[in-house]
Structure formats: structure tokens, C-alpha cells
Amino acid sequence: xxxxxxxxxxxxxxxxxxxxxxxxxxxxxxxxxxxxxxxxxxxxxxxxxxxxxxxxxxxxxxxxxxxxxxxxxxxxxxxxxxxxxxxxxxxxxxxxxxxxxxxxxxxxxxxxxxxxxxxxxxxxxxxxxxxxxxxx
Amino acid sequence: xxxxxxxxxxxxxxxxxxxxxxxxxxxxxxxxxxxxxxxxxxxxxxxxxxxxxxxxxxxxxxxxxxxxxxxxxxxxxxxxxxxxxxxxxxxxxxxxxxxxxxxxxxxxxxxxxxxxxxxxxxxxxxxxxxxxxxxx
DNA sequence: TAAACATGTGACCAGCTGTTCAGAAGTAAA
DNA sequence: TTTACTTCTGAACAGCTGGTCACATGTTTA
Lengths: 136, 136
Fold this sequence. Notes:
The structure is a homodimer.
Chain A: H1 22-31, H2 35-47, H3 51-60, E1 65-66, H4 67-74, H5 78-90, E2 94-99, E3 102-107, H6 110-129
Antiparallel strand pairs in A: 1-3, 2-3
Chain B binds a DNA duplex through residues 18, 50, 52-53, 66-68, 76-87, 100-103.
């Protein structure tokens, strides 16, 4: 039903590998996001992949906070919190408001907010529904 | 309006740091997920934080695929793909079906599927709406 | 049986990540 | 002014991550 390796998929020229289901591969490749979009998406997920940063962002879900309070809540040193916030700021995930010597950070990315809400909802759900998952 | 440092927040004893807005800190801490839930959530995001794995999972969004096709689509060597899939399998994000010497992987986590759909939708949206974001 | 094939695995390694430390910068109070 | 305070920053470092390589495992075909 399918030709094993002699049919070529246009968008793929870097690989020497064989292809089993060429149609599926072509379809999947055609719907794959841009390299840049993919990197951006991976970066966003990467920002959420650290417990400290995750705590920072979850805290900001309830409104702006100053660095020292954020450090306490996220269980980070103030230096570590500052570094983390700098990273988040560089990616425009948070924004800062200065008031004297204080710096108040807030969430500034709707997509990230959505991801955080979703993650939060998921933990609450699975807590109640799946106290322990089992193999299929 | 608020006492600077002499009021104590119950759930926080590991930190010597000062607290500016004790009420907010207490509120945020009380709504913070469990340490375990937080680690799990960060892990899930971490799995999506690598372009290769992200491509693997986005490909699986359209149905099951064998390892060699996945490797091609994700632009990974077959060994790297196998390693990545092992990691994803260990976290129950994907499941495998064996057929002879082939191994067909599929997405097996509704939450991850949701996150992927959302990320995909977001890249498509922002592509059209925000060709370039600007500072607030 | 032997050979080809698809996948899985362990060891190793370059590069990245998150933290701490020491100190700088800027602000507010004394 | 000096002092205290809040945040920011660069350097250095340990630990993790993702990849390649060589090879093992198990399967199908000749």
C-alpha cells in the first residue's frame, strides 16, 4: 500500500533516514510550526519548567508583588529571585513598576497566564479524581 | 497600614527575609500548590521545553507514528528520538504499541494534549495579529 | 541458519541552567 | 552628609540535559 523509501517528502532533505508512512510524515511536516515559533514556544515552556519561576508566576497570578515578597513566596533568595525575574522580564512574561526603591512585578503575558491557570486547575482536578494513575 | 516585619506568616519559617505586604504573602502562600504538585507541573512544562520533544509531541497530535518517522519529523537521530520517547514514556505522556519490530507511539496525556493545542493555536494567532510586539 | 532491520540502552561529553557570593547602583531616612 | 535599605548585576561553579556513539535486543526475511 505504501512505498517504503523511494517516495520523497519535499520539506525534508537533511535526513538519510527511511520513512514508513510517507503520507503521514508529509502531513505532519506541513502542519509543523515555523522553526522560530517552535523555539519561542519551547522557550515559554522552559520558563515554566523551574519550580522557583513557577512559584513566582503563580504568585503574580493574584496581582503585583515586590521582589522581597516574591522571594519569600517562591522560596528563593532575593538574588535568585532577581535573576529569575530578569529572565522573565527579558521574555516579556512579567513587567515591572518602580516605586522608590521598591520594584513591583506583575504578569504581563496573557498566554502564560492561561497556561498557569490551566496548570493550576489541572493539579486541583487530578488531586481529587486521580489520586494515583495506573498503566493503560 | 501594614506592619513591616514583626507580623509572622505561619507557613514560612525557612526564610530570614523581610515581608512588605504580609497579607498578600499569606494569601499567595495559602493558594500555592503542594510541593509535589508544583514539581510535577514544572516537569510537564520541562518536557515541552525542548524543540525536539515538542516536535515529537506535535507530530503525535495527529495520531500514532513509528519511531523512524518520528525521528524524521522531529529532525532527530533515531537514537535521540528513542531517548526522548523513553523520557516521555516514563512520564506517561506517550504510550507505545508494538507491532513486530516496529514501535508505534501515541499521545497518552489529555493535559499535555491540551497544552499542545493551546500552544499551536497561540502561534497561529500571534502570527497574524502581532507580527511584532512592542513594549508597554 | 545468517543477514538485514527497527528500536532500545549505557557511557560519555559539551553546553546550558540555576544558584550563591560579593559587591554595585539607586533611593530614602537620619 | 552618612547610613540603611531594596534591587540589580557579574563571576564562578556544581549539576543537569540532550546529543552522539557503539552496541545490545528482538524481529523479520532470505
